[in-house]
Hints:
This protein has helices at 3-8, 13-68. By secondary structure, the chain is mainly alpha-helical. The radius of gyration is 29 Å and the shape is rod-shaped.
Amino acid sequence: MNWAEFFAMGGYAFEVWLSWGLTLITVIAFIIWPKIRVRQTLEQVARQAQREARHQRTTDINHNESNSNR
């Protein structure tokens, strides 16, 4: 068997290599997609924490101002 016969796959090369390619793309997507989602989720949590910290500071300032006016 030579390389040309191997890559021709007995006349089924298109189906065989298409299957391998789609499988490879799917496996890569299953590896990369969760990593992207974790990064996005961590960024979203960090933004939420910053918003809550800003809100808490604003609430504390307003509370202190209202107590000093009494």
